[in-house]
Design goal:
It is built from 21 helices and 5 strands. The protein has 405 residues and is α/β, with parallel strands linked by helices. The protein folds into 2 domains: 125 residues, Response regulator (Rossmann fold, 3-Layer(aba) Sandwich); 270 residues, Hypothetical protein af1432. A 5-stranded parallel beta sheet has the order 2-1-3-4-5, sandwiched between helices.
């Protein structure tokens, strides 16, 4: 039975939550408490919980501090944050420690759907076959050090744009790569960015953090050791373009949902991280997969299934889940090749990334890495097939380039 603990200092909220989720009591073991201290004590005295859902603004222990402690002590516990009035500082602090951020009041069916979705995603990622593939690769890569340092700084009470910029600038190679990415055509910035502080100020802490993660992922220790038919610079260019297109698609479909468009952008940046893992961990075999896919004009993921038992999408999603990235991003990476295989069928950053990836691969100037097909089943279920033309026009209209802030 799945175990969930709810933390909110308002007793009425806890009682309302209990009534709301009463139909699930035979499937979920639910515990309700009124403080972070009480929650930590309960978690220490009992078996591990699968999910913790905590209010952010509590008098004795702030929700962000509680979730940070849970992240440290119980990293496998899924962390949801609830807030009625999320300020910028609160959002920045929780961005690196929560899997889902919810606004109060939260509709019952919405919360139920998110919990169910979180469980389904973990069941997919915890598939024994996928774990065996990761073990065969020689273990899971550790989280990049600079990315980890930025996360820790973002959690500090006196975090600032300048401190984050100073961290990045300590690494000359990273500084160069971040500025290269920020000044690429995919960002469409009206001015040239010449230093990391300027980039961080323009883009915001969350965006710059995720750009650092992308940059770290795309700089393997020895590029000469990669497969000869694997062009990591071309893949980076492709990922930036997918990110740009995915954000535009999300903005077209849900213009008022800034979080979804930002998730779409980050997911686009990282959607092919699994290819880099395979290229660095299974160099010869991945080179063979690329050759077969190109020669036989088959989707790369089909060849990967044959050779590795799992696709780069699944491997990338598994890794990012272990690294603690938010669920919408993990889901977008895991299912970006065939979104109809995702348990939840609704428009999300996953849809945006899938369509953006298809648009990019359909472009004449793109090196064909996957030769994926559009997942018509997913679009038909969402009744969005007719939107493809308007999305394409938005992605390819240079006059609509946005500033990514």
């Amino acid at each position: 039975m799945k175990r969930i603990i709810f933390v909110d200092d308002d007793i009425n909220v806890g009682q309302a939550m209990k009534r709301m989720l009463r139909p699930m009591r035979r499937e979920w073991d639910m515990t309700f408490c009124t403080s972070g201290e009480e929650a930590l004590q309960i978690m220490a005295d009992t078996e591990p919980f699968d999910i913790i859902i905590s209010d952010m603004h509590m008098p004795s222990m702030h929700g962000a501090d509680l979730l940070a402690r849970v992240q440290e002590k119980y990293p496998q516990t899924i962390r949801f944050a609830l807030s009625g009035s999320p300020g910028a500082e609160s959002m920045i602090k929780t961005a690196s420690i929560v899997h889902q951020f919810l606004l109060k009041p939260c509709e019952p069916h919405h919360l139920l759907g998110l919990i169910t979705r979180a469980f389904s995603l973990r069941e997919q990622l915890n598939d024994r076959r996928l774990q065996d593939v990761l073990l065969d690769l020689g273990g899971v890569p550790s989280i990049p050090s600079l990315y980890q340092a930025i996360i820790q700084e973002m959690q500090s009470p006196d975090c600032s744009v300048k401190k984050i910029a100073d961290l990045i600038e300590q690494d000359v190679g990273m500084t160069t790569k971040v500025l290269q990415i920020v000044n690429s055509a995919s960002f469409g910035l009206a001015q040239r960015v010449t230093n990391v502080l300027q980039a961080t100020t323009l883009l915001g802490l969350e965006n710059i953090r995720n750009l650092v993660l992308m940059a770290e992922v795309f700089r393997p220790a020895d590029e000469d050791s990669l497969p000869k038919n694997f062009n990591i610079e071309a893949l980076m260019h492709h990922s930036l373009k997918v990110a740009s297109f995915a954000k535009k698609i999300a903005q077209c479909q849900v213009p008022d949902d800034k979080h979804m468009s930002e998730d779409a952008f980050t997911s686009g940046l990282l959607h092919d991280i699994g290819q880099i893992i395979l290229a660095t961990k299974k160099t010869e075999k991945f080179g063979e997969a690329l050759s077969i896919a190109q020669k036989e004009r088959r989707p790369l993921i089909e060849v990967e299934k044959d050779l590795f038992g799992a696709t780069h999408a699944e491997i990338g999603g598994f890794l990012l889940e272990l690294w603690g990235l938010p669920d919408p991003i993990v889901e977008s990476i895991t299912f970006h090749t065939y979104p109809s295989s995702c348990p939840e069928q609704s428009f999300s950053s996953l849809t945006a990334v899938h369509v953006a990836n298809y648009f990019c691969e359909d472009s004449e100037d793109e090196e064909n890495y996957e030769a994926n097909r559009i997942d018509t089943d997913h679009l038909d279920i969402l009744e969005l097939t007719d939107q493809m033309e308007s999305w394409y026009d938005a992605c390819h209209n240079d006059d609509e380039l946005e500033r990514y802030r």
